[in-house]
Amino acid sequence: MHRLDRDTSGALLAAKERYAARFAQIFGTERKAVKLYTAVCSGHIKNPEGVINDELLIHGKMKKAETGYVLIKNGNLEDIDLEYSVLELELITGRMHQIRRHLSMNGNPVLGDDKYGDFKLNKKLHKMIGLNNLLLHASRLTIKEEFNIDVTAPLPEYFNPYL
Question: Could you say which of 5, 7, 113, 150 is catalytic?
Fold first, then answer.
């Protein structure tokens, strides 16, 4: 009924029967569905909350894209000289790789991102602490109104060093 990037962990809603797929419009522009993500990105985020409004190139056209965020924590891994931030993010629009692209465009790529991330840093993290995962997780999916669905997915253990 909606998609997650291949390496993103977390909550996903699937239609078991074909007729159920007709409810897919809940992920459209009417904002009946709220999708919250948790991400660990490089660098310290200065503003405790905000909205990233950078347009994204989708199939050759610039499209509006909005990602809201709340800063959970700024941290440091002293032994490998890494500043990082833990964010809760909300997809206001739903463009392909939107969170990953927005954070990367703003100089704070998601750790472990092998497409838009800091490749040199990811290699260092793999070598020093064994990071093999994209640190982006679909933590909560809420569908209001007639469906009244609220699903949460606990963070995988590989997020623990950053929490």
Answer: 5
